[in-house]
């Protein structure tokens, strides 16, 4: 007999529909899986056999062939276990074959017959609904994730015996409760925890308002990491579309927390020993990297100068285009990477350049240290600020701001930008191209004179010129001014990166 | 400005010092005193640069490695002794390879001059009237100088009428030191003074760069004049070749050994009438150059600095020993040309009204927006004000991100 089961494979951040066909006929007992499966798929034979037997089902002693169609696409992972098992049950009439016409299945089997979760349940659920199926059988621990999709009946099953009941009697178990630990860490880090640091908070407020990438310089222990962690709290809340995207990415990366759509913007802080593929995605399948996990959120690179050059170079395309394209043989995966970059670095080899009493570095040391930071990356950083240790008085004083207050300003500024940039490809000031800068960020006469003076004195390069204008536009937006004035330009200049061309001769 | 060679007492130092006191000064004007090192005599009508001087220059370059070996084995004192020997004795003392001895015998003056010309260098030997008077007074004056930039320019920059000031100092200078050195270079060159230095990292290069903004400068290198050293100063080297002079005691292509640096420093000290030390650690080459200058009877100036900075330990010590205080180009000019010789170009820079308080705060040490905010300045005003002050040149940003008031 022949049975057909619908399941899905994960390709990058997308899913592909896979039809598992199971054919059972008389002949020497054999169990063959075809369809370009990888090692995990081939091992499914053992898992499926043991799982069926241990769940009280019969394993047909006949010739069984399972085909994963379309046969020319590579398939990988353990998510096909359940589909193969159901196909065998249907083809051997242990469950009604018609049941599998409305249920898609997805999951890994253990030898005992229990189901185990795999990553990507949300994406699979979306694909199932798009593909016209009414229901999805998934491991219980992924049920809440799959249930986020409207219009799909989700059966979260614990093992094969429950699967049998669903398919035979239509008995769908209720959804499990949300996990306990999710509620506990609802406390997002807030600016109210910060003491002192009034100017860096201003700088981050500007960065968040315009979506500008920012570099924080400062001695070890000066508070850069603490400040960086609070940036997501001052960004506008996720829109529904953004939340769905973030949740899908988390699901596909296997880090979904299991309670509804993502509510907070992601904050990713990879260690500087990370590789290029860890950062932007890669590997055999390929898997998304940190840059994608930070999509719609913040990517924090602490100790920027310690990151390997290939890793930093790999970030160029994501920073420039907002996506990473990974090509593997016949597969091309496109991972979205629209994040805000926050980087931190020590100002000099000894780390204390911002404290003149303690720093022992000469100008040569400082210049050599500055050269270690990648040029192309610095080119995409709009704001650079030096963070100093708060004074004792500041540490003792009460908090100066709360995240919600700063976020309100940021949201208002972003509103202005969305209105102004409607119909263009840019959604915030940082994304403006040269033409948009000319049209929307050009300063008044006094501002132009100031900028020209800075350019003439070689304080900024040509690229830096536009960067300063973008930041000035954001500062004007924060102050509610439609005009970009000299004051805004001046503030932007003092927050600029050190892209001055090296002194010509000395 | 021309020291009397006989009056200089030999002092043990890490340089070529005279072995025997200069004697027999009574020779008639055109011929050089037949003293100490080498047979640097020349036949009356031989064209300059003469074979003897060229050969001597070549020999020292060819034996540079051996001489360096001798320095390492037997100490710096040995160098002075060695270089005081005449050609044959020198070859014997360092155990010159046969190839060198053979080449010495076959030395071809024209070939040597060709090699120099191909490297873009002119050669001036002791017997040439264009050889700087101030160098001729040295007991162990270089036999010949290889010069890039043209002998006419060289003569103009080192002649009687051209005051010269040497600006030397630490390689790992602070932002303060670099700024002062640059300002000295600029101010001196603008007043027509020749700035002399060694093109090393730090103070030397800053002085050259400043000078080039307003005029020519002379760089004296430890190795061949055609090789930029350090390599990172390639562009500076090219600029000095184009507008000033690059000079060396060694031939084209010779790489500098350690013993060459103190040797070069004596030339710097001798070429200039005044030596100014900008920043120097307590036991550094720059201080030795100053000592040389004093030995030659030249004036020594020093730029004071914070007593907490190890880089100002050197100059401050010189001041305690009686060196002249150099607060800027005017003081150096007073030393070089006599008091009142210089006119300050342009008016004193003052901060505009609305920035005066901010400027004062930065000058008093509030070197960042955070520090200013702590004093009650609104953040936006601090950010904007610092940017404007920087544009006006009244403050500068150090590589560490802090702001400092400029001198």
Poorly predicted regions of chain A: 500-506
What percentage of the residues of chain B does DSSP assign to strands (E)? 5-15%
Give the strand order, joined by hyphens, for the main sheet of chain B. Answer: 1-2-6-5-4-3-7-8-9
What is the number of helices of chain B? 18
Termini separation of chain B (Å)?
31 Å
Helical run tally of chain A = 22
- C-alpha Rg of chain B (nearest Å): 23 Å
- The averaged pLDDT of chain B comes out at 83
Give the proportion of residues in helices of chain A.
Answer: 25-40%
Distance between the termini of chain A: 85 Å
Q: Roughly how many Å is the radius of gyration of chain A?
A: 28 Å
What structural category arises from helix and sheet content of chain A? Answer: alpha/beta
The largest pleated sheet of chain B is described as: 9 strands, mixed
- List the uncertain runs of chain B: 1-39, 340-348
Tally of DSSP β-strands of chain A = 16
Essential attributes:
heterodimer; A: 506 residues; 5-stranded parallel beta sheet; 4-stranded mixed beta sheet; 16 strands; elongated; disordered C terminus; B: 407 residues; alpha/beta; 9-stranded mixed beta sheet
Task: Break the fold down into its secondary structure elements and pairings.
The complex is a heterodimer of chains A (506) and B (407).
Chain A: E1 2-11, E2 14-25, E3 30-34, H1 39-54, E4 63-69, H2 81-91, E5 103-105, E6 108-109, E7 115-116, H3 121-130, E8 135-139, H4 143-146, E9 153-157, H5 160-169, H6 180-184, H7 198-210, E10 214-218, H8 224-229, H9 231-234, H10 240-252, E11 267-268, H11 276-280, H12 290-293, E12 298-301, H13 309-314, H14 316-321, E13 323-328, E14 331-336, E15 340-345, H15 363-371, H16 375-378, E16 383-387, H17 392-396, H18 403-420, H19 434-440, H20 445-456, H21 462-478, H22 486-494
Parallel strand pairs in A: 3-4, 5-8, 8-9, 10-15, 10-16, 11-12, 12-15
Antiparallel strand pairs in A: 1-2, 2-4, 6-7, 13-14
Chain B: H1 51-62, H2 64-74, H3 76-84, H4 87-93, H5 98-105, H6 109-118, E1 122-125, H7 133-136, E2 144-148, H8 151-158, E3 164-168, H9 175-190, E4 194-197, H10 203-212, E5 217-221, H11 234-243, E6 245-248, H12 260-271, E7 274-277, H13 285-295, E8 299-302, H14 313-320, E9 324-325, H15 329-337, H16 356-363, H17 369-374, H18 379-391, E10 395-397, E11 403-405
Helix pairs in contact in B: 2-3, 9-10, 9-15, 10-11, 12-13
């Amino acid at each position: 007999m022949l049975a057909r089961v619908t399941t899905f494979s994960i390709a990058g951040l997308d899913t592909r529909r896979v039809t598992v066909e199971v054919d059972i006929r008389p002949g020497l007992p054999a169990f063959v899986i075809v369809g370009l499966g990888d090692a995990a798929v081939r091992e499914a034979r053992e898992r499926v056999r043991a799982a069926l037997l241990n769940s009280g089902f019969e394993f047909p002693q006949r010739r069984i062939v399972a085909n994963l169609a379309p046969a020319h696409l590579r398939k990988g992972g353990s998510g096909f276990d359940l589909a193969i098992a159901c196909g065998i049950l249907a083809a051997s009439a242990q469950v009604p074959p018609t049941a599998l016409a409305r249920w898609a299945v997805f999951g890994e089997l253990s030898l005992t017959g229990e189901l185990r979760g795999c990553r990507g349940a949300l994406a699979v659920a979306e694909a199932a609904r798009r593909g016209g199926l009414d229901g999805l059988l998934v491991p219980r621990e992924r049920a809440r994730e799959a249930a986020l999709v409207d219009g799909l009946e989700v059966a979260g099953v614990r093992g094969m015996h429950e699967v049998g009941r669903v398919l035979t009697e239509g008995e769908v178990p209720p959804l499990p409760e949300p996990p306990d630990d999710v509620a506990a860490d609802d406390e997002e880090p807030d600016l109210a925890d910060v003491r002192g640091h009034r100017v860096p908070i201003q700088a981050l407020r500007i960065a968040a308002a315009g979506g500008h990438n920012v570099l924080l310089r400062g001695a070890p222990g000066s508070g850069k990491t603490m400040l960086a962690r609070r940036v997501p709290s001052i960004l506008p809340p996720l829109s529904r579309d953004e939340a769905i995207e973030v949740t899908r990415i988390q699901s596909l990366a296997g880090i979904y927390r299991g309670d509804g759509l993502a509510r907070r913007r992601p904050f990713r802080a990879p260690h500087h020993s990370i590789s290029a593929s860890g950062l932007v995605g890669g590997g055999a399948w390929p898997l998304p990297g940190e840059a994608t996990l930070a999509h719609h959120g913040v990517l924090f690179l602490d100790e920027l100068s310690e990151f390997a050059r290939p890793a930093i170079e790999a970030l160029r395309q994501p920073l420039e285009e907002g996506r990473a394209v990974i090509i593997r043989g016949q597969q091309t995966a496109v991972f979205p990477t629209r994040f805000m970059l926050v980087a931190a670095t020590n100002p000099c080899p000894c780390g204390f350049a911002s404290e003149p009493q303690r720093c022992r570095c000469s100008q040569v040391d400082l210049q050599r240290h500055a050269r270690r930071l990648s040029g192309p990356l610095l080119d995409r950083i709009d704001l650079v600020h030096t963070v100093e240790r708060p004074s004792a008085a500041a540490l003792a004083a009460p908090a100066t701001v709360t995240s919600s207050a700063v976020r309100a300003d940021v949201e208002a500024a972003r509103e202005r930008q969305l209105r102004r940039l409607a119909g263009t490809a840019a959604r915030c000031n940082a994304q403006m191209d040269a033409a948009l800068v000319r049209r929307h960020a050009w300063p008044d006469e006094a501002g132009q004179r100031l900028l020209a003076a800075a350019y003439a004195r070689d304080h900024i390069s040509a690229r830096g010129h536009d960067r300063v204008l973008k930041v000035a536009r954001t500062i004007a937006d924060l102050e509610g001014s439609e005009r970009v004035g000299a004051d805004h330009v001046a503030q932007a200049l003092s927050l600029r990166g050190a892209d001055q061309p090296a002194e010509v001769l000395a | 400005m021309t020291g009397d060679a006989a009056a200089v007492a030999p002092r043990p130092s890490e340089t070529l010092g005279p072995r025997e006191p200069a004697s027999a000064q009574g020779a008639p004007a055109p011929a050089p005193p037949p003293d100490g090192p080498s047979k640097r005599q020349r036949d009356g009508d031989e064209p300059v640069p003469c074979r003897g001087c060229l050969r001597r220059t070549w020999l020292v370059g060819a034996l540079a490695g051996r001489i360096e070996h001798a320095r390492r084995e037997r100490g710096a004192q040995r160098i002075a002794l060695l270089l005081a020997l005449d050609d044959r004795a020198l070859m014997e003392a360092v155990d010159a390879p046969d190839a060198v001895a053979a080449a010495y015998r076959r030395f071809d003056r024209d070939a040597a001059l060709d090699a120099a010309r191909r490297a873009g260098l002119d050669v001036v030997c002791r017997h040439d009237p264009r050889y700087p008077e101030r160098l001729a007074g040295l007991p162990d004056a270089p036999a010949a100088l290889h010069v890039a930039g043209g002998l006419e320019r060289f003569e103009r920059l080192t002649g009687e009428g051209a005051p010269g000031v040497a600006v030397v100092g630490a390689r790992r200078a602070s932002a303060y030191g670099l700024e002062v050195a640059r300002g000295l270079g600029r101010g001196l060159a603008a007043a027509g003074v020749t700035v002399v230095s060694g093109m090393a990292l730090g103070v030397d290069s800053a002085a050259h760069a400043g000078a080039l903004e307003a005029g020519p400068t002379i760089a004296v290198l430890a190795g061949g004049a055609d090789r930029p050293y350090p390599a990172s100063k390639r562009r500076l080297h090219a600029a000095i070749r184009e507008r000033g002079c690059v000079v060396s005691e060694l031939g084209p292509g010779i790489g500098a050994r350690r013993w060459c640096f103190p040797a070069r420093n004596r030339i710097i000290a001798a070429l200039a009438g005044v030596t100014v030390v900008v920043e120097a650690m307590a036991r550094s080459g720059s201080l030795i150059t100053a000592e040389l200058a004093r030995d030659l009877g030249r004036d020594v100036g020093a730029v004071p600095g914070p007593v907490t900075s190890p880089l100002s330990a050197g100059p401050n010590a010189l001041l305690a020993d009686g060196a002249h205080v150099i607060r800027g180009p005017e003081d150096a000019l007073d030393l070089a040309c006599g008091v009142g010789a210089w006119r300050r170009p342009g008016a004193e820079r003052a901060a505009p009204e609305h920035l005066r308080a901010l400027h004062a705060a930065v000058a008093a040490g509030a070197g960042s927006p955070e520090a200013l905010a702590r004093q009650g300045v609104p953040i936006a005003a601090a950010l904007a004000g610092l940017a404007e002050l920087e544009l006006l040149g009244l403050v500068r940003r150090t590589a560490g991100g802090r702001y400092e008031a400029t001198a």
